[in-house]
Specification:
By secondary structure, the protein is an alpha/beta fold. It has 2 domains: 134 residues, Response regulator (Rossmann fold); 62 residues, Winged helix-like DNA-binding domain superfamily/Winged helix DNA-binding domain (Arc Repressor Mutant, subunit A). Helix content is 49%, strand content 12%. Strand 1, helix 1 and strand 2 form a beta-alpha-beta unit. The N terminus is likely disordered.
């Protein structure tokens, strides 16, 4: 939902570290035109709690237990396509920003960003706009018309990338199928497509690729 300038911007914070959530809350509440309306420490809690409160902007860490920020983002955008989501990460924009923007995120910020940049991003996406940093803009421009030069994981569809990420995080196909409410055959078909597109041999090679490309911790 887009924010009217008459009311405080209602922000929901999702991060698995309490100290990070507290720090974000401190930054946000310094601005009289913003308020924190809820918190979650994993993706499952995000999907449970966000629909129950009035939220203008969701701040969400990409790396969370039980369900990652990317998984939660894709499911949230199906439930509420208009909810602006800013993804926070320890990774720089070049590694994840493009994928997340393409998956529906309204903005992407490194956790090393200064507080004023965070506040600026919140205000911008609350108005229904995208927040794209200079680094991410450069990445977007560089990727125009260069599909053959993209990293292999960028060739995956959003669903394939979601399953790729879940496999890379150590989840089994039967658990992935259950969590995504799809059949095991469908999940295996996606896995087959992932291996074919990326020229990989199995789950171990998916995990190894993800670690070598800094896609998982």
């Amino acid at each position: 939902m887009n924010q009217s300038c008459k009311n405080p911007i209602k922000v929901f914070i999702a991060d698995d570290h309490a100290v990070v959530r507290q720090g974000l809350k401190h930054i946000i509440t310094q601005d009289p035109n913003m308020q924190v309306v809820g918190e979650a420490e994993n993706g499952v809690e995000v999907l449970e709690k966000v629909p129950q409160v009035d939220v203008d902007v969701l701040l969400m860490d990409i790396e969370m237990p039980e369900k990652t920020g990317l998984e939660a983002l894709i499911q949230l955008k199906l439930q509420d396509p208009d909810l602006p989501v800013i993804i926070l990460s320890i990774f720089q924009e070049e590694q994840y920003g493009l994928r997340l923007i393409n998956s529906g995120a309204a903005g992407y910020l490194s956790k090393t960003s200064p507080p004023e940049q965070l506040l600026e991003a919140i205000k911008k996406v609350a108005k229904g706009e995208k927040y794209i940093t200079q680094k991410l803009t450069e990445t977007l421009v560089m990727n125009l018309g260069r599909d053959t030069e993209k990293p292999l994981h960028e060739l995956l569809s959003n669903r394939e990338y979601q399953i790729f990420f879940m496999i890379a995080s150590g989840k089994k196909i039967k658990d992935i199928a259950s969590e995504l409410s799809i059949s095991i055959n469908t999940a295996n078909a996606h896995r087959t497509n992932i291996l074919k597109k990326m020229d990989l041999q199995g789950n171990a090679s998916i995990v190894r690729y993800a670690m070598q490309n800094n896609l998982v911790k």
